[in-house]
Each structure stands twice: as C-alpha cells, then as structure tokens.
TrEMBL record:
InterPro entries: Nase/OxRdtase_comp1, Nase_comp1_CS, NifE, NifE-like. This protein may play a role in the biosynthesis of the prosthetic group of nitrogenase (FeMo cofactor). This is Nitrogenase iron-molybdenum cofactor biosynthesis protein NifE. The gene is nifE. Keywords: Nitrogen fixation.
C-alpha cells in the first residue's frame, strides 16, 4: 500500500483512542493548516446554509458573480409555498466597481428586485471583495429598508474572516434583527420553535407532524421552509428546540437572554435520538401529562413498524466497519448510535466544526482503536479508510469521490441529498441506503486501491 502521511502541523488534530492514551487534548476550532486542502468551508458558505431556506425572502450576493453559484437551488431544502429562495441574485461586481465601490450598484439592484418580487425581507451577503473595498452595506440596507418598508438585512459574511462556523454566527445575528418584530397574539402555551432544521427533502414536515400529534404548536422553523412573518413572531414560543447545534445555539442563547425562552439540544436522526427529542419536549411541558402520553403513542407506533425492518438489514451489515466525516460533531453522535443499531462498528469519526466538548463526547462513545479527527483532508481520510479496512464512508459531496476512488461504499449525509434521513421514516431510508451501498455487487469490480494515485 502506498504510504500516506499526516502533515506535521495536523498531528494534534488527530487522535486514536486506546488504553495507553490517558490524556485527550485534541486541537480544534482553529484555522485550517495552509496546504492541507481542508474540506472546511468559508464564512460566506456558513451564512447561506443557514439563511437561504427562508423561502419568502430575497437573497442577494454582493460581490463577483462566481460567489452566487453557491445556491440552495442545487441543495435539498424545499418549500411548501414560495420558491424565491431558489433564485440566486448577485450584484455581479466588475473591475471598475471594485475600484470605485459597489454601493450604488447594490442600491439600484435592491430597488429593482424588491419591486419585481415583493419579498417579505431581503438578506444581503457580503463576500470577500466587499471586505477589501469597504462598501458600507449597512447604510445601503438601512436606506432601502426605509424606502421599501421591509427588513433589508446585511449579512457580514466575508469569506476570509474565518470558517463556516463564523458564517453561522453572521446568519444568527441577521435573524435576530427580525426576531421580536411581529405580534405574538394567538400563540399558545405549548409552543416551540425548531432551530437548525433546514427541511432537506421535507424533513421539517416530518418532525412538525410528530410534534403536532403530541399537541405541540410549532411557531416557526429556522430556517427550513421558513417564513419571515413566522420568524418575526418566534419570540412568542415557550421553548426553542435546537437540531443543528453548531449553526443555531448562538441564536437560541440570544433569544434566551433577550426573551427568556429556554432551549433544548436534540437530534432527529436514529431511533434513540428521535424518540428522546419527543420525550424531552414532553418532559419540558410536564404540567400537561397528555403530551407525554401522546409522545409515547407516536414512538410506540413508529418503532413498532420500523424495528423489524432494521433487524433484516442488520443480518447483512453486522460487523461491517464505517467511517464518519460530517460538518457538525453533534450529527456524528447520532450516526454512531444509528450504525450501532445496524450492528456496524465505527472506526473513524470526524467533523469540520467540532469543539473540545464534542470530541470528548465522541471519545466516550467510540470503541478502542477508533480514529477521531478534526478538519480532515482527502489524504488523511484515504489513509484511515485503507488502514482500518472501512466498508462504508458517511460524509458529504466532497467526500464521495474519495470513497468511490478507493472502492468503498458511500452514504450522503449532507445538504445535497433528496431523501429524508430524519425521523423514524428517515432511519429506515438511512438503513436501506447503507445496506444497498455496502452490499452492492459493484464493489467486486472496484478492488481497494493502495493510494490516491
């Protein structure tokens, strides 16, 4: 096998769990090492991941046209109504705009777009070039908002300022400018907001249905199938439920400080975590025992239908090895539990944006010999896949070619997917996809490669 090495500057971001290792001090939450070809995305990417599913808002990229290619039109967030979020608008800055400034172009673009599409709000995304030339987008947004009577919100997402996590912060700050600006009339006591759920392949609809069967009112979803008016009145909810903790804990904490709304961190992936997400909400509203009884009824029905099907998949998958490399570490927790229910062993677990607490949690969940890695790159992932004789890699669009080139099965768990993986039905879809990929006869024609050459 061709020898693949870890860069010297990356060695503190890789940890192998074993009995001899007493201390766990993985390096994380740092900028990517130059030359490592990290899979991590930029600030601009993070902000649009969070905000773009707001379906009745205008999304305008202030910068060169190339940045506007990153759009939710090629991703899996769907809407039950407006489709404005699927259109990608850009001020298309040219050389002369960079020299003389792009504020006038942004102003004229916003007037034209707002008149034509009549959005409920507009999000304006700063790109790297805006950070360099110093356009005052706050002033432009304020002027247009006063003239058109809708929120026009600057998103300070200059890509070079940090990582994808900094983009999450910029998005949360933009959302907070409209949270609390709407009427809370009619919102009941047993009400929640769902944060960090982006309605990939309709997953938000599945989750909302579970809660509504329990007698829980969902005031807003931030931001999957989101609506500006719902976000404006979201401060009237009694509880915030945070699904993607990396992207939305900041918003939940800010709403708790400003409006006194508590929050719970949950996951909607896998039998165990999906059930817990329903029970945790029921426990919060403990003064109404009917909610807990309804939750038990939902879980009993869904698990009763799902479990026998999972046992069939487990017969074939028992003992197979899996590697996980995802954006947020909290997602990896649920994946480990889900794979365990299928009898599979996780030998590699990593993320792009995990913190020390996340990795400490992963260490506690993983077996001896498991590799835990932060902000990995294709060479490292290839090295561990080959060394650990992995049967399945779970990741996103950037990891797919790595798996296929090495002759390893792959499961897409990123925003590009078109099949729901959340909820109880999502667990069935996941198990089916894992089974069909791992057990496919195609792998006999794609023997394991010894490297990336």
């Amino acid at each position: 096998m061709e020898k693949l090495e870890i860069l010297e500057g990356r060695k503190k971001q890789v940890f192998e769990k074993n009995k001899e290792t007493e201390t766990f001090d993985i390096k994380c939450e740092t900028t990517s090492l130059s030359g490592s070809v990290s899979q991590r995305a930029c600030v601009f990417c993070g902000s649009r991941v969070v905000l773009y599913p707001v379906a009745d808002a205008l999304h305008v990229v202030h910068g060169p046209i190339g940045c506007a290619a990153y759009t939710w039109d090629i991703r899996g967030a769907v809407s039950s109504g407006p489709e404005l979020h699927r259109l990608s608008f850009s001020t298309d800055l040219k050389e002369m705009d960079v020299i003389y400034g792009g504020e006038k172009k942004l102003y004229k673009s916003l007037l034209e777009l707002i008149d034509q599409y009549e959005p409920k709000a507009a999000f304006i995304y700063s790109t790297c070039i805006i950070g360099l030339i110093g356009d005052d987008i706050d002033a432009v947004c304020k002027k247009v908002s006063e003239e058109k009577g809708i929120p026009v919100l600057p998103v300070h997402s200059e890509g070079f300022k940090g990582t994808k996590k900094d983009g999450y912060k910029a998005a949360c700050d933009a959302l907070m400018k409209i949270v609390g600006t709407g009427s809370t009339e009619g919102i009941g006591k047993y009400s929640i907001n769902i944060l960090g759920e982006f309605n990939l392949a309709g997953e938000a609809w599945i989750i909302k249905d579970y809660y509504e069967q329990m007698g829980i009112e969902v005031v807003s979803t931030m931001t999957g199938d989101g609506r500006v008016d719902d976000i404006r009145r979201s401060h009237g909810a009694s509880l915030n439920i945070v699904q993607c903790s990396g992207s939305m804990v900041r918003l939940a904490k800010t709403m708790e400080e400003k409006y006194g709304i508590p929050y719970l961190r949950v996951s909607y992936f896998g039998i165990e975590d999906m059930s817990k997400a329903l029970y945790d909400v029921a426990s919060h509203f403990s003064d109404n025992p009917e909610i807990l009884q309804a939750a038990k009824k939902v879980v009993s029905r869904e698990v009763g239908e799902l479990y026998p099907q999972l046992l069939e998949f487990r017969k074939a998958l028992d003992g197979k090895k899996a590697a996980i490399y995802v954006g947020g570490a909290f997602k990896a927790f649920s994946l480990i539990k889900a794979l365990d229910s299928l009898g599979m062993d996780v030998v590699l677990a990593g993320s792009q944006t995990g913190n020390k607490d996340d990795y400490e949690g992963l260490k506690g969940m993983c077996d001896e010999g498991t590799i835990i890695v932060d902000d990995s790159n294709p060479v490292e992932l290839s090295k561990f896949i080959l060394e650990k004789e992995v049967d399945l890699l779970i990741g996103g669009v950037k990891e797919r070619p790595i798996a296929y080139k090495l002759g390893v099965s792959f499961c897409d768990h990123n925003h590009e997917r078109k099949i729901p993986l959340a909820g109880f039905i999502g667990m069935y879809n996941f198990a089916k996809e894992v089974y069909e990929s791992v057990m496919s006869p195609v792998w006999q024609f794609a023997p394991r490669k010894g490297g990336l050459s």
